[in-house]
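Quick check before the chapter quiz. The format below is the same one you will see on the exam, so make sure you can read both the input and the output lines.
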Amino acid sequence: MYGNLEELIKKISEGAKIDESEVKKLIEEKVREFSGLISEEGAAHIVAKEYGLNLLKEISKDLKIENIICGMKSVNVKGNIIRIIQPKEFERNGKKGKVASIIIGDETGQIRISLWDEQTDLVKNLEEGMNIEVLNAYTRDNGLGGCELRLGKTSKINKIDVEITPKKGVGRTEIRRLTIGSNGEIRGAIVQIFDTKPFFFVCPICGQKIVDNKCETHGEVEPKPILILSGVIDDGTGNMRIVFFREQAEKVIGMKSEEAFNMTKNGSDFDKLKEKINEILGKEFVVRGRTKQNQFFERLEFIATDVEEVDPIKEAKAILNSLERKE
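Here is the expected output.
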């Protein structure tokens, strides 16, 4: 097993033909580069990849969530089910498919498990709060700056009788209190929408980002447009850059990605769509997500994982419940 840090350093040293002390320095630099958001083991894999070394296939991976990175195979991980997103139907190439997902957490973090087609039947036997182990999974880029777990033909999800306490987010919080890596919920108004192209394109079969109409897995395909919106949210205590991908962007403007793209006349005229997007300015939303450092702009940003318009009745009940608990 080459999963612990010492063994990873040794393998990199042998493969790259550099001293172990130099490998340690490179790992420390990589951890600093990612503002401490990855573990030393995760940083070691990135260093290895930069030297053309792929240690992922050699590792029997029984991992903590914080050490999971994109590109891994045969991943084993245990977690507590935090949330189950029930199956939804969609259509691709004239055929119907289904997608569902499970959010699991351990004491080091959270990760999404994406389930496709017949795999979605697995959620029938699962409940939020249940402890499970995921065996022989693999990881893919989730399009949000992180990675997610996928199941292959030999993958399994088993219930386990092991106590797992997932790392908790900060709950409802003020923007001024958000720090790098914190998960939580904020309530605020959208005060600015950046004037950038509101779409990126993915493979209609596997959902991965495509370049020049080509998917790494499925070759030349008809690109599927996916909404992406970025702007500024303000809650009165501060403001922050916020990014909405995919379903979250669709919820914000009340329109599916394909419908929005059709409004642009297949990308040739964005005026009507911009008018539609600008209608959300000043609206209040409750947004759940995570805070990360945007390396390009060198500032914090909030990546939305769920969003809904503010419900005054629901908010009032929450305030009353909070006051009752204090009494």
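If your answer matched, good. The two ends are 54 Å apart (CA to CA).
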